Amino acid sequence: MNRTAMRASQKDFENSMNQVKLLKKDPGNEVKLKLYALYKQATEGPCNMPKPGVFDLINKAKWDAWNALGSLPKEAARQNYVDLVSSLSPSLESSSQVEPGTDRKSTGFETLVVTSEDGITKIMFNRPKKKNAINTEMYHEIMRALKAASKDDSIITVLTGNGDYYSSGNDLTNFTDIPPGGVEEKAENSAVLLREFVGCFIDFPKPLIAVVNGPAVGISVTLLGLFDAVYASDRATFHTPFSHLGQSPEGCSSYTFPKIMSPAKATEMLIFGKKLTAGEACAQGLVTEVFPDSTFQKEVWTRLKAFAKLPPNAVRISKEVIRKREREKLHTVNAEECNVLQGRWLSDECTNAVVNFLSRKSKL
Ligand SMILES: CCCCCCCCCCC/C=C/C(=O)SCCNC(=O)CCNC(=O)[C@H](O)C(C)(C)COP(=O)(O)OP(=O)(O)OC[C@H]1O[C@@H](n2cnc3c(N)ncnc32)[C@H](O)[C@@H]1OP(=O)(O)O
Predict the structure, then answer these.
(1) Which of 62, 73, 176, 210 could bridge across to 57 with cysteines, CB 3.0–4.6 Å?
(2) 169 CA distance to ligand 1 middle (Å)
């Protein structure tokens, strides 16, 4: 039906708003911005809000889209909204039909799938469409899952990723939701969050195993220095491009990496951003063993199930004996790294790198 000659009623408008919620496929940022702008124009009229600051990327993009509609009348905006939604209709389907393996809640977590069986608690990053980038919610959920795993009856805990990536590290959109207190407050809160997050890995009482199913970036790599074993597919790569991002090492890697792989090799990774293959990471001691991707899951899980049959108290006590001497030192290093990073996040070097990624000008 050609709706352009018609005037959309309030009911049509409301129906379209409901249809948007049922979109199966993400229509993309450009369409979402258009929908947002038309909705605001249809309900509030022309944009007369103050322009958001340069760091507030998402709100600035929304403001730009709304402001670009100028003095378009409310009725016309309502009609354009209805037309735009109806043009998206091929992708309108019930949200219950979402395929498995997408970013949907399955176990009380939005960003993780956490399962426990055969003496193993598995924490799987579950944002495959975003390469398992760690957003603020995921930082909190990982901490919650680790705290629960430390108390459950499993013998070992495993972290892995859903999809083709292990994790692409910190979600760079974490830089965009700036609170009323401004970017300084955001940096301060983020340093507190990061310190608590890394602290959960330092204090974890059971063997912590990484099953690195694909490329790993940033904090998902640095944390590996705090794991008890790291098994990697030969598809995995290990990349810590902190200087490129105007940032500095975290996850205690400024301390663990030089110890694990020698100061010079750690420098190549942490300062110069050298990306290691799984084989190279194994040669440097960061990875315990590499498996061909075709047999990776089968071989690793067979091995982990055997580990999980060991006597639980012996396993836990041995981990304590191996790790306890280092714990205090690691907490000190963690605090220092977070402190330095807090300053880095406010630097032009970091801001430019994040803006370039978010405006699609750069990728690693
Ligand atoms: C003011 C202070 C606030 C600070 C808050 C910080 C809190 C704690 C920080 C702790 C310190 C951590 C540091 C790090 O981890 S540094 C590493 C950061 N990661 C990156 O820089 C990776 C960026 N991603 C890429 O370069 C590429 O996406 C990648 C090479 C990983 C994959 O490329 P490919 O072409 O294969 O795939 P796409 O780029 O198309 O990716 C698919 C979609 O996923 C989105 N994506 C992927 N990674 C990230 C990410 N890290 N952050 C945000 N979004 C990510 C990508 O944009 C695509 O999305 P769309 O489909 O919507 O376009």
Answers:
(1) 176
(2) 7
Q: ipTM score here? A: 0.98
Q: Could you tell me if 346 and 183 are in contact, meaning their C-beta atoms sit under 8 angstroms apart?
A: yes
Number of domains composing the chain: 2
> 216 and 268 share a domain?
yes
- Could you say which DSSP state residue 97 is in? G
Which amino acid, residue 273?
G
Distance CA 119, CA 151 (A): 13
- Domain span including residue 123: 112-362
Residue pLDDT, tens place only, 86-98: 887 654 332 222 2
Residue having the nearest C-alpha atom to atom 4 of ligand 1: 175
| Whether residue 62 has its Cβ less than 6 Å from ligand 1 | no
Q: Are residues 119 and 64 in the same domain?
A: no
Say whether both 137 and 84 belong to one domain: no
- Over residues 263-306, the pLDDT tens digits come to 999 999 999 999 999 999 999 999 999 999 999 999 999 999 99
Q: Cα of 127 to ligand 1 centre, how many Å?
A: 11
- Any ligand 1 atom below 6 A from CB of 186: yes
Assigned domain for 316 exists = yes
Q: Which atom of ligand 1 is nearest to the CA of 358?
A: 57
Provide the whole-model pTM: 0.77
Q: Are residues 193 and 124 in the same domain?
A: yes
**Two tokens at 132?**
């398992």
Q: Are both 280 and 181 inside the same structural domain? A: yes
Q: Describe the crossing of helices 10-21 and 29-44 by its angle, rounded to 10 degrees.
A: 150
> Considering only CA atoms, which residue is closest to atom 40 of ligand 1?
130
120, β-bridge pairs: 117, 156
Domain annotation covers residue 1: no
Exposure of 175 in the CB half-sphere (CA atoms within 13 A): 23
The DSSP line for 82-129 is: HHHHHHTGGGB--GGGPPTTSS--SSS-SSEEEEEETTEEEEEE--GG
> Ligand 1 within 6 A of 171 CB?
yes
